[in-house]
Amino acid sequence: MQRYLLATGTALLLLPLALYGTLHFLRPPQTNKEQILFRGITYQRYARSTPRPIMIHVVSVDLTAPGVKALVTPPMASKRDRTSARTTSEFLREFKLQLAVNASYFNAFDEKTPWNYYPHSGDRSYPIGEAISNGDRYAKTKQGWRVLCFSQNRAQILESGKCPEGTTQGVAGSEIFVEHGKPKAQIFRNPRDKPYPRMAVGIDKEGKKLWLIAVDGKQPIYSEGVKMPELAKIVMDLGVDTALNLDGGGSTTVVMATNDGAKVLNAPIHTKIPMRERPVANHLGFYAEPF
Questions:
Q1: Nearest of 150, 160, 240 to residue 200 by alpha carbon
Q2: What contacts 96, CB < 8 A, 6 or more positions away?
Q3: Residue 268: helix, strand or coil by DSSP?
Q4: Which of 40, 121, 237, 286 shows its CA 20 to 30 Å from the CA of 210?
Q5: DSSP letter at 51?
């Protein structure tokens, strides 16, 4: 009986470790990949070993392709200045989108343990900076924050922090770090900059093509993230004219729709658990047609 209890106790103690280890194998392989996901939407994955392990995920969107249409998370019906937090997969499924990423920084946020964090799905959350969904401006502009704005089949990234009249979808980001195809000087002056998971959006000069750039991080040996100058180099190599930094860290998530449901394309890490999605305040998604 003592041996049985000892074996059972050991198994119970090892089970969480075994489950945690299994999650590492669910991450995308460290190989390069290119795939047409939908009409007008292409996915690329790059695995790099220098200057550290880095996994890069790039989704390019032709905003002029038939059927391509953007959507930003709408506000709560009863509280106009806030949203109901969702994971990116929940957002994609709820609104029947083909592709989605996390978007704006938000309040409030806390992460202490795998079971003690905020927000959970369904909790109230507040996007930082302007947010627009289907023409409804529900989050106010905030000084020092920039915006990505959609109108018909064109996108703009603006320093003013406010989208123009007629904008149908809009989200805010912390800084424009590439402008006119060149890195902005301030990204080289931050002494606290360190390798980190990143989410960014870029557009071409005409605003007809859009790139979503996600870099996984906080995962030693697999992907340790990038500094802002490194992210700028990645973005410029794609041919981006202007790029905006969105919420990164454990929020960084890219999801696509499949016949079997939502599929996470990158390796998010929430509460230090790989492949666990963080509920966030708002998202940017796209409708698209099969290719």
A1: 240
A2: 257, 287
A3: coil
A4: 121
A5: S
How many C-beta atoms lie closer than 10 Å to residue 23's C-beta?
14
Residue with tokens 């940017």: 284
Tokens of 119: 């927000």
Single-letter amino acid, residue 58: V
71 within 8 A of 281, measured Cβ to Cβ: no
By the 10 Å C-beta count (0-12 exposed, 13-18 middle, 19+ buried), 99 is classed as buried
Is residue 240 classed as helix, strand or coil in its secondary structure? coil
Residue among 26, 79, 43, 72 at smallest CA distance from 277: 26
pLDDT digit string, tens, across residues 204-242 = 999 999 999 999 999 999 999 999 999 999 999 999 999
CA 213 to chain centre: 8
pTM, two decimal places: 0.92
Question: Measured between alpha carbons, how far is 151 from 164 in angstroms, rounded to an integer?
Answer: 9
